[in-house]
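Async update (no meeting this week)

Hi team, since we skipped the sync, here's where things stand on the single-chain job. The sequence we agreed to prioritize is pasted below, unchanged from the tracker. I ran it this morning and attached the output directly underneath so nobody has to dig for it. Comments welcome in thread, and please keep replies under the output.
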Amino acid sequence: MKIRNDIEENKATEIEAYGELTPVIKEKIEWFKDQKLGIIFHWGLYSEAGIVESWQLSKEDAWARKKGAWREDLETLRNDYWQLSEVFNPEKFAPKVWADLAKKSGFNYMLFTSKHHDGFNMYDTNFSNYKITSKHSKFHKNPQADILKYVNQAFRESGLSVGTYYSKADWHSPYYWEPNSDPIGRYASYDPIDKPDVWQKFNQFVENQLLEVVSNYGPIDILWLDGGWVNRDNHEFLKMDQIVSKLRNIKPDLLVVDRTIGGEFENYVTPERKIPDQPPLKAWETNIPIAKNWGYVPNDVYKSFEEILETFIKVVSLGGNLILGVGPKPDGTLPEEAVSVIEKLGKWLERYGDAIYGSRPVTDVKLAGYYLTKKDNRMFIFYESKNAAEAISISQLSEISSVSLIGSPERVQISDGTIILPQIEEPFGCIEILIDRQGE
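Output:
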C-alpha cells in the first residue's frame, strides 16, 4: 500500500536477475547480504521547517502540503525555504554520539543524505554555493560545518561501513529548474530533448558531485541514488556508464544503487516501506523510517519496538537487509523516540544477533507462523512470546544433534520429532537447531 506519493516503485526490478558482474562486485554483494541492519539519516533544511523532507517545493506533490502547508502559497513557500540555510544551525550536532549509538545497537552500515531533492548540500561541494559551508549558512563557522565529512569519519572510526544518499534531481540547480521557470513538479523545468546543452550541463554537474563525494568523503561502500524519475521518465537520462566507470576507478568495489531503475547500476533492490511478497532475485534492502516521515517532523508518530523487531526478523528470514530511517532534529540531536527503539533493538541483538548476521534464508523447510534462518549446519527458528509452550513439529529435519534456546544454556527437549518452545521475556525469541552432517 502506498502511504505517500513520493514512494518510487518498479516491481519489475524485484524480479530482475543480475547480468554479468565483475568478481569484485560479486564479492561486495555477498558482503552486503551479511550486513542485515543499517541506518539512514535524512537531514537537511526540511528539519528546520519541520515538513515532509523537501517535497512541499514540488507543485504537483500537493499531498505533501495537504496536512499543513508550510506557507499559504507556493511561491512564498519556495522563497522562504531557500532562505532556511541562513537559519539552520545544528549546534548540538555530535556525530560520534550517533555512531556510538548505532555501533552499540548492532547496526553494520550507515547512509547519510548528502543532498535531497531541494539541492541543499550537506557537505562542502565545489559545484554549488547552496551548501552548509557557504558563508551565507549560519552553521558555516562551526568546526564540524562539513557535516558529511564528520558523519562519515565518526561511523568509520566506530567500525561501521559508510554509504552516501544522493538525489539525482536538484531543484535548486539552474540546470534542472531553470531561473524564472515554473516547473510543473518534481521533474526538470524543460524537456532535455529540447535543450540538450542545458541537460549536458546538468549531467556534468551530477558527475562532478558524485566524483567529489566518492573522492573526498570516502572510502564509501554504497552510493544510494534517489530521485527515481531521473534515468526513467521525461527524457531525463544521465550518462551512467561514464559516471560509474569514473567512480569505480576511485573505488572498484563501490555498490551503486540507482533505485527503481534496474539494470547494471542497481546493484541491490530497495523496496520502500514494505516487505516484498516474494524476495527479489537481486540482493535487497527494505527501507523503513522509524517514524512516519524520513526527516524530522514535530509530533511525528513513531513505530513501536515490537513492530520494528517483527519487520526486521521477517525481512532477514526472506534474505534481505533492513535499513531504518531516522530524522535528526534541527539542533543536531536524535529524537528520543527513535533512540529508544534503536536501543531496544540493540539489546535484543546482543542475545539473538548470531541468528541474524551472516545468515541466509531457509528454502527447504516450511514452518507456518515462524521465521527461519540458517548458517552452515545451524538452523534458527524465531517465534513470538505468545507462542511459547507450543509444540511444533520438526519432523522435516533429520540428523538433529541438539536444540537450544539462543543466549541460554537451556537445552530444548525433543520428543518424537516435536519440540516445546521455551518461555521468553522478549517479544521474539529464537531456538537453534544443530544439524549433524557427519554422514555427508
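Quick observations from my side:
The longest helix spans residues 196-216.
The chain has a mean pLDDT of 95.
Reply here if anything looks off.
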